[in-house]
Amino acid sequence: MGVISNQLIINDSLSLKELKQSFKTLFPFLELELYRKGKLLNGRDENKLLGSFSKESLGKGFAIEPAMSINDLEQAFDKKLGLKATVYRKMGSSLIETSFTSAWSLYYQNIKGGELLKDFGTNS
User: Fold this and answer.
1) Exposed e or buried b per residue across 76-94, where buried means at least 16 C-beta atoms within 10 angstroms of its C-beta
2) In terms of domain of life, where is this protein from (predicted)?
3) 93 is in which domain, residue-wise?
């Protein structure tokens, strides 16, 4: 997969499924969803390689790191792949969009998700 220490390397040969699994490994209290032309990339797209969504090669790719903000992550996916990325934070058994806290780092978002999960007393 694409996880190297505390980084997730995004490149042409990473599948959507591998990306989502690796993101969940790094940030267990966050969820990443990708959209192409307004449509959610889901189960039927999970085995597609990320390079297949872009007109140009990613080359060396780019890294998702804990210090990266949601804004930076969204811009990287848009600029490099032409995909809209949305990050959700767990709140109990629900997911909330992080648009109002998009300047926060992925690390801090994940910490807050863990705190909320603890407060709600569920591991869902």
Assistant:
1) bbeebbebbbbbbbbeeee
2) Bacteria
3) 3-120
